[in-house]
């Protein structure tokens, strides 16, 4: 997602057996991200942190507490700061879930699922472009 304009820039579709964090390589490409990566705690692992460092990307992945060892106040504050950026991206998912028919994909086959999700992303971007034009009708 483009956090400045709230547009879908790139997406990846896989079957349900693949966890989101295992498909992150399809999204972390030059030109698709800034200097940092924001994500929820499911993406945090030593391997992921090493991959981000190797790609010269700064990790802004949320931290999570463990059983018997909750997050410190500093950890909670850090997550709150990261949430301000992530919230802009989560609005896109919220719009698609609430306004565009939900997130359930009722198709048979990965090709059809990719087409359906691609069309939903395109429709969302077109709707968002109309909103952006309304906010700034005469760009310089």
Task: Summarize, please.
With 140 residues, the protein is mainly alpha-helical. It contains 3 helices and 2 strands.
Tell me what the structure shows.
The protein is mainly alpha-helical and 140 residues long. It has one domain (20-135). The protein contains three helices and two strands, in the order βαβαα. Strands 1-2 form a two-stranded parallel sheet. β1 (36-39), α1 and β2 form a beta-alpha-beta unit. The radius of gyration is 17 Å and the shape is globular. The two termini are 24 Å apart. The relative contact order is 0.14.
Defining key terms:
3 helices, mainly alpha, globular, 2 strands, two-stranded parallel ribbon, 140 residues
List the helices and strands and how they pair.
Layout: E1 36-39, H1 46-54, E2 58-61, H2 73-99, H3 110-135
The SS-based structural class is mainly alpha
Q: What's the overall geometry?
A: globular
Rounded Rg: 17 Å
How would you state the average pLDDT, rounded? 83
Q: Can you tell me the number of structural domains?
A: 1
The rounded distance between the terminal residues' Cα atoms is: 24 Å
Give the helix level as a range of percent: 40-55%
Largest sheet report? 2 strands, parallel
Seen as an oligomer or otherwise, the chain set is single chain
Order of helices and strands: EHEHH
Strand order of the largest sheet: 1-2
Note the total helix count. 3
State which percent range the strand residues make up.
5-15%
Please give the number of β-strands: 2
Poorly predicted runs: none
